[in-house]
Structure formats: C-alpha cells, structure tokens
Write a structure and sequence with these properties.
By secondary structure, the chain is an alpha+beta fold. The protein contains 2 helices and 11 strands; from the N terminus they run E-E-E-H-E-E-E-E-E-H-E-E-E.
Length: about 160
C-alpha cells in the first residue's frame, strides 16, 4: 500500500496479565482473528499520547493513570497501509472493562500470549517489552502473514531473522 499512518498500541497490565483484544468482530481487518493490544489511528491534531488515552478509553472503558512510552514499531505490509506504531504500557488505570465493538477483550497471562494467534513480530515485540528497560524500535515487514524482515533499529541496528 502507499500510505503510512501513525497508530498507537497500548498494553494494559495488571498482576494477572495483559488486556488483549481478539479481533473477531470486523470482516475487513488486517488483524482479523489475531490477538492484539488496544489502540488505533491518530486523529488530526492529536499527539500519540492523546490517541493512546482516547483509544484505550473508547475500546475498554478504562482510563489510564499512567502512560509509559516503550518504543516504536514500523509495520510494513504488502496488504494494507504501513504503520508507525507508538507503544505504551499502562500499569495504573481506573474504570471497568466494557464490551468492545472491535473484538473480545480478555486478560491473558503474559506467558500465554505467544500461544495465541498473534503476529510473528509481536513475539519479538513482547520479548523486547520484557527485556529492554528503555525505549526500542523494531522494523517488521510482512508478505501476507509471513514476517520477511525483522530489524532492531534502536538502541542498535541489527537483523533479527539472520
């Protein structure tokens, strides 16, 4: 595709896991039937942090008390728009989880997330979220659902599939 869009991805964490969304409600969705965090596209005039807070509330009913910047994913696809994805963790929030129009929300233990149908690059992302204390940047390129390039671009530059 020819467009590059800016999006956010928020991982809401509590002691028993991460709030994940099983994307099963929209027919034409690049994430259909995959499990992802919550988030979405930045609107005109919005900062990534404002978008993350808005999308988190719209999709879950939860309000972030803290928003921790974790990094940037460059998601390249031959089937959809390319995305710059701003990654955030939330460990303190208020409200009650409500039903979501885009998928089914469920608290998933972090060690079980890799067993779910997720993007192959998300397995790398979760490893970085666990192991990298500071921000990181990954470039992930897909042909269909196949991860064909995975590159750490910050804090160092190296190919992760070699």
């Amino acid at each position: 595709m020819d467009r590059l869009i800016a999006t956010t991805l928020v991982h809401i964490r509590k002691e028993n896991g991460i709030l994940m969304m099983h994307r099963v409600k929209k027919k034409h969705d690049i994430n259909h039937d995959k499990w992802i965090g919550v988030g979405g596209k930045l609107e005109a005039g919005e900062s990534p942090e404002e978008c993350a807070r808005r999308e988190m509330f719209e999709e879950t009913g939860l309000t972030a008390r803290n928003l921790i910047y974790r990094g940037l994913l460059t998601f390249l696809s031959d089937q959809d728009d390319d995305e710059l994805i701003f990654l955030y963790d939330v460990t303190s929030f208020e409200g009650q989880v409500r039903e979501c129009e885009e998928g089914v929300l469920e608290w998933v233990p972090e060690e079980k997330i890799g067993d779910l149908p997720i993007w192959e690059g998300d397995k790398l992302m979760f490893r970085y979220l666990r192991e990298c204390p500071g921000p990181f940047s990954l470039k992930l390129s897909y042909r269909g659902d196949e991860l064909v390039l995975a590159r750490e671009t910050y804090p160092q530059e190296r190919d992760l599939l070699a």
